[in-house]
Amino acid sequence: MLEGLMAQVARIVILTGAGISAESGIDTFRSAGGLWEQHRVEDVATPEGFARNPDLVLNFYDMRRAALENVAPNPAHEALARLEREFAGELLLVTQNVDDLHERGGSRQVLHMHGELKSALCSACEMRSPWHATMIERPPCPVCLAPTLRPDVVWFGEMPYEMGRIYQALETCDLFVSIGTSGAVYPAAGFVQEARVAGARTLELNFEPSEGSRLFHETRLGPASMVVPQWVDEVLSRAAE
Ligand code: BJW
Fold first, then answer.
1. Are residues 63 and 136 in the same domain?
2. pLDDT class for 6, splitting at 50, 70, 90?
């Protein structure tokens, strides 16, 4: 359905979710056996949960940060990095993921709207600093020295990062592509409607249809490591015609 349009595509916004990193060995949230079956979301992904039991939350994120050392980007991450290098138009890659697999796959410009595991946020001075160690021991903030660091991730009830830039790009894009996200969490789940209002074509790439699948002009089903490289090949070959 996107066929006749691809050659004219000049501005693409891509949204990725946990599904793009699943084949690298990172658990998704809502799939069978996913993170929300192992932990209560209210306990580990809300400011209230952190206030109730900071050790539990710091440990949850310390473990996930450490686990990043044992995973590697897959062909889907690498294909999006190739698209960034070779696509002549404008591309904005927005990820809900807190892992660093897009960067390790070669992408240079990535908006982490839900924050990053390898970043710390100081609850006292609000500085964000690169962070690779654990936080359970309450290390001092590198800026204000208070022992008030938390994972620099966006929990329920908090405002995601870079919303102004994302909405601006959605308002002017020709094509919006959603990859490996369940469409269960807002505001990201609403991006497809924003893009449609702006007149963009919309494409979903997912293992199974997401909650908002009917909102997309086209859905292609399959593992990200297959469908993403295929789609990138298509975009780049049409652009070269
Ligand atoms: C594959 C695959 C393979 C598997 N290949 N695919 C009522 C109505 C509407 C909204 C609300 C409401 N009540 C409250 C809200 C707002 C709330 C919200 O959305 N709640 C919902 C539960 C309803 N949202 C918020 O609070 C957000 N803030 C906010 O709204 O601020 C106000 C605001 C106002 C106006 C503008 C802007 C903002 C904050 C949300 C924060 C979410 N945080 C988390 C944790 C981050 C840190 C961490 O990682 O621990 O973000 S929750 C979790 O869900 C994480 C993810 O980024 C996010 C989305 O999950 P994702 O990526 O979609 O993963 P899954 O597991 O759900 O899906 C995996 C997908 O992969 C599936 O589709 C599979 O099929 C697929 N897949 N293998 C391809 N091999």
1. yes
2. low
Q: Establish whether residue 181 lines the binding site of ligand 1, counting it when its CB lies within 6 angstroms of any ligand atom.
A: yes
40 and 86 in a single domain? The answer is no
Q: For residue 93, is it within any domain?
A: yes
pLDDT tens by residue, 51-110: 999 999 999 999 999 999 999 999 999 999 999 999 999 999 999 999 999 999 999 999
Q: Which residues pair with 44 in a beta bridge?
A: none
Domain that holds residue 215: 6-26+73-114+160-240
Question: What is the distance in A from the centroid of ligand 1 to the CA of 98?
Answer: 12
Residues 129 and 92 in one domain: no
Of the residues 112, 114, 132, 217, only one is catalytic, namely 114
Q: Give 168 Cα–ligand 1 centroid separation in angstroms.
A: 21
Name the CA dihedral angle for 152, 30, 48, 121, rounded to a multiple of 10 degrees: 0
Whether 152 lines ligand 1, by a CB cut-off of 6 Å, is: no
pLDDT tens profile 148-199: 999 999 999 999 999 999 999 999 999 999 999 999 999 999 999 999 999 9
Domain co-membership, 143 together with 215: no
pLDDT at 3: 53
Q: Give whole-number Cα distances, 60 to 122, 182, 233, in Å.
A: 18, 22, 38
Residue nearest to atom 21 of ligand 1 (CA): 185
The answer, yes or no, to whether any atom of ligand 1 lies below 6 A from the CB of 208, is yes
Do residues 169 and 183 make contact, with C-beta atoms less than 8 angstroms apart? no
Fill in the DSSP letter of residue 193. H
How far away, in angstroms, is 78 Cα from ligand 1 center?
A: 23
Query: Catalytic residue at 77?
Result: no
The number of folded domains in the chain is: 2
